[in-house]
Amino acid sequence: MTATTQNIDWDEICNELSELEVIRDRTQLSKLSQDYYHFSPILQPLLQDKTADLVVRPVNEAEVLKVAKVCVQYKIPLTVRGAGTGNYGQCVPLEGGIILDLSKMNKINWIKTGLTSVEPGVKLAAFDKQAREQGWELRMVPSTYRTATIGGFIGGGSGGIGSINYGQLRDRGNLQAVRVVTLEDEPQVLELRGDDVQKVNHAYGTNGIITALEIPLAPAYPWAELIVTFDDFMSSARFGQALGNSDGIINKLICICASPIPSYFAAFREVIPEGKHCALLIIAEPSLEPFQDLVREFNGEVCYQKSSKEANKGTTVIEYTWNHTTLHARSVDPSLTYLQALFPLDPDLKLIEHCYHHFGDEVMLHLEFLRTQGQMLPAALQVVRFTTEERLNEIIRYHEDKGILIFNPHTYILEDGGMKTINLEQLEFKKQVDPHGLLNPGKMRAWLEQ
Fold first, then answer.
1. Which CATH architecture group holds 3-101?
2. Which of 195, 221, 264, 441 minimizes the number of CB atoms within 10 Å of its CB?
3. Which residue ranges does the record assign to the FAD-binding PCMH-type domain (predicted)?
């Protein structure tokens, strides 16, 4: 507990919020103050003892406003939470106070042609199940698809399955509108539309509480899941690049894993031969015939295939890609950690080949192809054998010196984990809507350094 909250009478706060669901049980408080920051050996000691004083679960916007008013009146830090599936401490309360758990605000307001309006607590998989009945689905989802919420994904995520077609969440057009509750002296509700949504998009809830979102949708295809194996890594990487560049083949996921990463995938140990490199893929069923020709061109072998009907049941390849790749590796060897990188445009993949040979098994290459600024590029979520923080920083610097952009997953500071620049628009919006600095304090460098 910090000095900020030591003098607060929490019994009095509970009385103020008596009509809302309030959690004070210490075990629950501890659980709801966590995310998956333990992926990082750097973040673990910094965040493991951070706990809220209360958790409040509102069921509508009016209750959010009630909590906002109480927090402003008593100057209580407020941290917004979805399902807590982030990896960087986005929803960990650094200064105690109240956690606002929005998981019960889970209404789908409407689904129209190519567009939806939802509350922030709607789970991604639950939404898609309903939207697909009308022929639509979310444009992109994280590997935590089954449990993550839409509001949490917008606030703390960046991209995922589907980014090969639609880029990142912050790309113009991927978020149409949001409703935001402020923490001004008299909290109010604002609606942001168009480019104004970037004021709160991927801001960790540091400058507004999102209570509703309008999000564009993608056509829902019958998606098949496949795993293709290769004898050498560069064949798998070049296959992934060729598939991403095959405009006529409709796909949603191109994940390339260098050996020994596939050996960490318990569900696929009987499927992927030892020592093979693999591609985890989601392909539209009407595109499977030309896809097979591409596999043959690169001497790959399909070792696993699920139809679109089968893919909705049991094991799904989604949960072995993006950040889940690291999750499964760490379940076998907890000393492993990871990095996040974006390689520059490199048609011959020479830089990827260099890194593969330079680092060997110390930095195991895991590529996720995505679209950015009109180009298809390989991002990487490398699985790293952690030894020391100094060595990890050396690895980061080596990548950056080669022109590889590192999105550092070993910091909870908003700007340091991303583009490493101050977002003046988000800072100015925070000054307007959170003048006392109560929202998720300690996470926005721009605010701390002003």
1. 2-Layer Sandwich (3.30)
2. 195
3. 48-220
pLDDT confidence band for 418 (50 / 70 / 90): confident
User: Quick one: what percent of the chain has pLDDT higher than 70?
Assistant: 99
Q: Which two tokens stand for residue 377?
A: 């590029």
For helices 389-401 and 350-359, angle between their N-to-C axes, nearest 10 degrees: 160
Residue 349: half-sphere exposure toward Cβ, Cα within 13 Å: 22
CATH architecture type of domain 108-219 = 2-Layer Sandwich (3.30)
How far apart are alpha carbons 132 and 429 in whole angstroms? Answer: 36
Q: How far apart are CA 33 and CA 55, in angstroms?
A: 9
Distance of CA 120 to the CA centre of its chain: 15
Beta bridge partners of 342: 379, 405
Determine how β-strand 366-372 pairs with β-strand 405-406: unpaired
* Site of tokens 């942001």: 192
Instruction: Compute, in degrees rounded to 10, the torsion defined by CA atoms 412, 418, 420, 424.
Output: -90
Give the domain ranges of the chain.
3-101, 108-219, 223-306+341-406
Q: What is the mean pLDDT of the chain?
A: 96
Beta bridge partners, 279, equal 228, 256
Our measurement of the distance from residue 276's CA atom to the centroid of its chain's CA atoms, rounded to an integer in Å, reads 28
Query: What tens digit of pLDDT does each residue of 294-337 get?
Result: 999 999 999 999 999 998 788 899 999 999 999 999 999 999 99
In 134-235, beta strands by DSSP E: 136-138, 177-181, 189-193, 209-219, 223-230
Total residue count of the chain as it appears in this document? 450
Bridge partners of residue 218, in order along the sequence: 137
Our measurement of the distance from residue 146's CA atom to the centroid of its chain's CA atoms, rounded to an integer in Å, reads 13
Question: What does the block give as tokens for 400?
Answer: 């950056």
